[in-house]
Amino acid sequence: MAMTITEKILAAHAGRESVSPGDLIEVNVDMAMANDVTAPLAIETFRKIGMSSVFNRDKVALVADHFVPNKDISSAQQVKVMREFAREQDITHYYESGDVGIEHVILPEKGLALPGQIIIGADSHTCTYGALGAFSTGVGSTDLGAVMATGEIWLKVPSAIRIEYSGTLRPHVSGKDLILYTIGLIGVEGGLYATLEFAGEVIQALPMTQRFTMANMAIEAGGKNGIIEPDDITRAYIKGKSPSQALFFKSDPDARYEREITVSVGEIEPQVAFPHSPANVRPVSEAAHVAVDQVFIGSCTNGWLEDLRDAASVLKGKRTARGVRLIVIPGSPLIYKQAIGEGIIDTFLDAGAVIGPPCCGPCLGGHMGILAAGERAVSTTNRNFVGRMGHPESEVYLSNPVVAAATAVLGRIGSPDEL
Amino acid sequence: MNRIEGRIWKFGDDVDTDLIIPAQFLNVSEAKELAKNCFSHLRPEFAGAVREGDILVAGRNFGCGSSREHAPLAIKTAGIGVVIAESFARIFYRNAFNIGLPLLESAEAARAASDGDRGVVDIVTGTIELPDAGQTFSAQPIPDFMRTLIGAGGLVEYVRKKKVGSGRL
Fold first, then answer.
1. Do the Cβ atoms of A64 and A96 come closer than 8 Å?
2. B86 to chain A: nearest residue by CA?
3. Which positions of chain A have pLDDT values less than 50?
4. ipTM metric
């Protein structure tokens, strides 16, 4: 039976020849992940279920990345719960302090997410690893607690939407713009419960980090997972990262899709998502009237080395506009170190940026760069909901890293071409 | 408890989990603490005025955004007995059933219900009565597996029973 890549991965993990959309299946999980916000509740669930040990101490990742370094006493308590559990269970992949980066950056970086695997995480942006040709999706803490206990999860096989990108990308347009454009096209529930399969010549040429950016935001269209067929670019990325076996699945040519969409990228400008929805996108040329107070470059969407490199190339030899606060957070300690090595951090500092330690930072309004009433930020993150980065009367505009960098210099939203 | 009767709290489309429980309050996991800040940005009066058995009614894509289970937990602990919406975001849907907060999908009922009206809901049959509007609706039936979860008392009990059955616990 013809299947999509997602269906093939699910079938292989359910011990079945094939699966179809709507089937309710139980699958084996290759990696279960939680962070300092979601782990404490998941641990509570794990205790209630009553198993004495996790299903496999090598297949659980616990990452303290949301409110760290601990922002207050309550956050410190949350991390403590997670740390003590990790010690008790002898969890191999426990990360905090100098080891920690953003969960969705360090899992791929450390080879803890591989093509063909199933990764379940108690964080909605777990869909990021679909960029590697894995099935990965976000769940709540109770689901994750049950996965930690059993190594299994029930899933409904999603139907799939295939989005094919063709043409030549314009300057300053990257994976972030493609995914923002796509969410604008199909809406915040355009992919509800479904797989978003990104394909076509543009995707095949897209570097790995930009693929991560696209899969990362599948949830912003309501998707269950985002996925890209693994290829030589994927192979090169995972090389030497893990002794575990990667499985390279591809969709059959006659696989069934609920919907097929074609996007010609040639006319797409860098995109900016206006408040308060990631689907509320406009070309950057229509956003030049928006003055900003803060620019944030980082997050699981755009905290990769390439993102920092691109932003630094725009900022080289320039200063942020008066009154604009630029915050830069590398996605992992390794990226931080590489950025120092390449002189990228120097460029940011010379431009007037504040550099934060690898963590989720101000993306979710908890820590390190919260907005006051009436303030506006351009952010390379994934959500611009009401109050997402601070006061309910603040505003967040989502963009790619080079538009964010240009905006920091201009003091209003703009393109690097305007510098 | 299959029959739920209470005041209707009406919300719009695309109510995200940051609105249900803003991230600034996620530094705790205690359900009662979370409930105090439920909808604190959107409807600051909600947490103080909501009563046990009240009904939350919303538009499309309710619960979109983050996977935080703190969102359905805050709603349930605040006292809401059932959420009726035109549609639900995927992770919220799973989370709600996993922790024992029933959800019903009915676009018609969601549109007909007004804030402050009374509602009477049977979560087993999916019947939604709106006495003030003089209308009765039938929601989409809750999927079989979700019924099994509710019948077992949530995911924890479901998994426990399964593991006892297989001798792994």
1. yes
2. A189
3. none
4. 0.93
